[in-house]
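quick q for whoever's on today - can somebody do inverse folding on this one?? i tried earlier but teh output was garbage lol. tokens:
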């Protein structure tokens, strides 16, 4: 019996600590999962006011469809449709069998790129493949095609290209079809085209649950990179498929006096995404910042070119890339 008081003490401590040691998991029913998604996005998504989105109406539409009998497939569809209302390529919900996505920022516009023509008639069989940077000399102009900012770019690779293009009329950097990736690669490339640090924009991030609650703007700056920088004339070719890190790259380059953005408006994607998880284990992401160019324009909807050029259907039928041709001629006479 001498151990009985200790047993009572252990039971008391166990009871008092139960709430902190063995916390129950959040409810994992369809309604709770949807409400978790809706509430988190409601408090942290950054573009409700900018895009004039009625998020409350989205809640009403889909909560009316959800009950305890809602299947996982149905719940995923409802969550995906709700997120689709945000009109944002940085928004997804990720289950074990599917990933929702919104590509309207590029699918509703002309493609303005035919890679078969670029590869056969401009890069050719003798082009250099300097890492991910495909490059060629076209009529006394240096040409670079960069297909994804997910592919790394090193300072050494940029050294090789700048050495190759010395003495030419200028450089074309073709980022059409580049949907983004690692923003560090944008920093690396842009840094080789400036000799001085400069401000190319600013950003804000959510600071509270209100749709209009943001931090004060923070300047975005680009520094020179490498031992040698190129200050000759440059054209950056763009289309609507330029998104996210590519959009950021265009914002960095557009500020420079010796750089001309040519082509179509970029696809945008100016919000940096954050990730969260639902009680059922599905992950989801959405934009939690806003980015502005040097003139204070929100770049979520894309960046307009300095010179508008589209791929002419007749040229394309004849194997000619109108946009590359225009860029070459522009650099030869500027």
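ok took a stab at it. sequence:
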């Amino acid at each position: 019996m001498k151990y009985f008081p200790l047993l009572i003490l252990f039971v008391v401590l166990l009871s008092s600590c139960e709430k902190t040691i063995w916390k129950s998991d959040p409810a994992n029913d369809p309604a709770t999962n949807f409400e978790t998604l809706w509430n988190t996005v409601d408090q942290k998504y950054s573009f409700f006011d900018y895009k004039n989105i009625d998020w409350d109406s989205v809640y009403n539409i889909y909560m009316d469809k959800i009950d305890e009998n809602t299947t996982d497939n149905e719940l995923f569809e409802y969550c995906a449709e709700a997120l689709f209302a945000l009109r944002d390529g940085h928004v997804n919900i990720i289950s074990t069998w599917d990933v929702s996505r919104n590509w309207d920022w590029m699918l509703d516009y002309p493609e303005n790129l035919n890679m078969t023509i670029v590869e056969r008639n401009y890069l050719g069989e003798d082009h250099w493949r300097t890492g991910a940077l495909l490059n060629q000399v076209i009529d006394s102009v240096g040409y670079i095609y960069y297909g994804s900012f997910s592919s790394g770019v090193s300072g050494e690779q940029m050294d090789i290209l700048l050495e190759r293009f010395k003495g030419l009329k200028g450089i074309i950097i073709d980022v059409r079809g580049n949907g983004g990736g690692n923003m560090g690669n944008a920093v690396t490339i842009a840094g080789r085209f400036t000799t001085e640090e400069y401000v190319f924009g600013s950003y804000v991030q959510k600071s509270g649950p209100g749709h209009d609650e943001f931090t004060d703007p923070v300047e975005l700056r680009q520094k020179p990179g490498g031992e040698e920088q190129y200050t000759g004339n440059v054209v950056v070719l763009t289309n609507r498929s330029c998104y996210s890190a590519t959009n950021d790259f265009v914002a960095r380059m557009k500020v420079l006096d010796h750089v001309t953005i040519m082509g179509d408006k970029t696809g945008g994607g100016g919000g940096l995404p954050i990730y969260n998880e639902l009680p059922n284990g599905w992950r989801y992401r959405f934009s939690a910042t806003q980015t502005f160019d040097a003139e204070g324009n929100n770049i979520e909807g894309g960046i307009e070119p300095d010179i508008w050029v589209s791929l002419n259907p007749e040229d394309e039928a004849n194997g000619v890339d109108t946009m590359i041709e225009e860029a070459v001629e522009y650099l030869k006479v500027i």
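fwiw Residues 109-194+229-267+302-332 form a domain with the 2-enoyl-CoA Hydratase; Chain A, domain 1 fold (CATH 3.90.226.10). also The CA atoms of residues 130 and 161 lie 8 Å apart. so keep that in mind when u check it
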